[in-house]
Amino acid sequence: MMLNMTMTGMDSDRPPVLLAHGLFGSGRNLGGLARRLGESRRVISVDMRNHGDSFHDPDHGYAALAGDLAQVIAAQGGRADVLGHSMGGKAAMMLALTQPDLVRRLVVMDIAPFAYGHSQSGLIDAMEAVDLAGLRLRSEADARLAEHVADPGVRAFLLQSLDLKADPPRWKFNLPALRDQMPRLVGWPEAPKGGFTGPALFLAGADSDYCRAPQAEAIREYFPQAEIRVIPGTGHWLHADRPAEVAEAVAAFLD
Alpha-carbon distance 64 to 58, whole Å? Predict the structure, then answer.
């Protein structure tokens, strides 16, 4: 099955750029980047499997996610620049390492080829605990989610994927699969070190813990041509914290 995708931007002799979002996101999360990059090329924004309007599947490992991206690229002509954030960044790395002929340039935002020790299962618990019956307004959904998630920014992010038009309302995520696959999501599978020798830009949030010294070492082991750039004043969602600066850095690298 093919991922749900949105094509934007303009026709160009440059390769298209494929955007892959992070956990609990959707293709529209990278909309600011899509608009900036679309000024000079075609942009493909996808909903990753078990997210958005894409298909649900019990397998949420990175080999499967990379295969989904490969299918999209092949359908568009066979080669692309690829950008991924967080979970999408790991999928993009796996694609570049295992099918390097499909990737011209790689951009990874605030993630590394590294097995992290944290889990996001608490957010799955929170979403599953919300009584969705009778919900019609997003403000009402936010109030119910606030009983389980204190951070309003995190709530707003999650609520982008609550389908209030469905009867009854539903989360667009495949929450059971994401819960089951969480160890694989935060982990990192076997992959060929140095399998991608093309240009690679890793953008790290200065206030994030995802790309510190151990992770930077792992990046250089897998991607010998990697440039690691820290964006001041940003956390894990660096494209939301400093959208213009991140977009310009990506555009300059891809051009």
Answer: 10
Which range marks the domain in which residue 220 is found? 5-116+187-254
What six digits make up the tokens of 149? Answer: 């998630």
Task: Give which of 67, 173, 49 is closest to 120, Cα–Cα.
Answer: 173
Tell me the pLDDT tens digit for each residue of 141-197: 999 999 999 999 999 999 999 999 999 999 999 999 999 999 999 999 999 999 999
Q: pLDDT tens-digit profile of 192-212? A: 999 999 999 999 999 999 999
Query: Does the CA dihedral 164-166-167-169 come out positive or negative?
Result: negative
Positions annotated as catalytic residues are 86, 236
Tens of pLDDT, residues 82-137: 999 999 999 999 999 999 999 999 999 999 999 999 899 999 999 999 999 989 99
Number of independent structural domains in the chain: 2
Q: Are residues 199 and 112 in the same domain?
A: yes
Of 15, 30, 58, 16, which is closest to residue 243 (Cα–Cα)?
30
pTM: 0.96
Contacts of 71 (CB under 8 A, 6+ apart): 2, 3
Residue 159 to residue 26: CA distance in whole angstroms: 11
Residue 143 makes CB contacts below 8 A (sequence gap 6+) with none
127 and 197 share one domain: no
Residues 101/79, Cβ–Cβ less than 8 Å: yes
210 and 150 within one domain: no
